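Lecture notes, part 5. Sequence design as translation. It can be helpful to think of inverse folding as translation between two languages: the language of shapes and the language of residues. The source text, in structure tokens, appears below.
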């Protein structure tokens, strides 16, 4: 794996660690190589049935600074041209990232190591779970640049922190601390900077200790339920439960329960 790849991948047993590798731009989300890296890495994780959980973090001191403001100033990349061209630039550019997240089958934890600004805040919201370094900060800051959350932030953020708080963050563009992010439910844990990756790996390890098919099915149900009625969710849960009851891992878990021992799940 090239050390200059935009999204590095390391394996820690059943856990994959993805690191945004653009410290010179504070891990800004810009350029074809960055957009395609999320798509290709996620396809790689989906195909590798040995991966049961993933972690996303940033290199250097930032998690992700959002869009490249220099490109906005210079009207280059996806920010070039008139309204129609910018619309198309977003569709074939940064909007590929939230769409890629919808295809990701394994649970993913955002280990927010520093500022998560604008699209960086939305990137964290795309993950299933978020934990933060005490040095992290968050802002849905698009309004401060005279633009809107073009990467789906108005859909993502209310589903994490609720409609009222999401509106406050998006309409003010205020920056909040890691502790405030914890208070409003944007993150589930705040740890010291030097403890962040250990905490993320420990959490990912507890997830990865469970059966691989059931982990992917549970994530699928959680995501689908965001736009389903209760009846639709129940129908889909019943269908997937029928499959789960036929797996060897389910039978092993039941046997281990009665034998009072830890289960040994399939590799």
């Amino acid at each position: 794996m090239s050390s200059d790849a935009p999204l590095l991948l390391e394996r820690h047993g059943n856990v994959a660690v993805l690191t945004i590798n653009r410290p010179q731009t504070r891990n800004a989300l810009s350029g074809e190589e960055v957009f395609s890296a999320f798509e290709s890495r996620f396809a790689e994780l989906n195909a590798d049935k040995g991966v049961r959980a993933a972690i996303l973090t940033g290199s250097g001191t930032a998690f992700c600074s959002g869009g490249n403001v220099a490109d906005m100033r210079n009207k280059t990349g996806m920010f070039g041209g008139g309204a129609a061209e910018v619309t198309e630039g977003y569709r074939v550019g940064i909007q590929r990232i939230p769409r890629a997240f919808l295809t990701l089958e394994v649970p993913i934890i955002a280990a927010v190591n520093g500022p998560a600004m604008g699209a960086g805040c939305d990137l964290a919201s795309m993950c299933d779970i978020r934990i933060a370094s005490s040095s992290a900060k968050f802002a849905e800051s698009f309004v401060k640049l005279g633009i809107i959350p073009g990467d789906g932030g108005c859909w993502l953020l209310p589903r994490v922190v609720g409609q009222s708080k999401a509106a406050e963050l998006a309409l003010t563009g205020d920056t909040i601390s890691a502790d405030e992010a914890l208070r409003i439910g944007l993150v589930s844990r705040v740890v010291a900077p030097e403890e962040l990756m250990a905490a993320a790996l420990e959490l990912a390890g507890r997830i990865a200790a469970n059966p691989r098919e059931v982990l992917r099915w549970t994530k699928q149900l959680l995501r689908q339920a965001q736009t389903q009625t209760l009846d639709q969710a129940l129908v889909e849960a019943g269908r997937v439960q029928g499959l789960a009851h036929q797996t060897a891992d389910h039978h092993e878990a039941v046997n281990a329960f009665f034998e009072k021992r830890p289960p040994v799940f399939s590799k």
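The translated text above is only one of many valid answers, since several sequences can fold into similar shapes. The CA atoms of residues 42 and 103 lie 8 Å apart.
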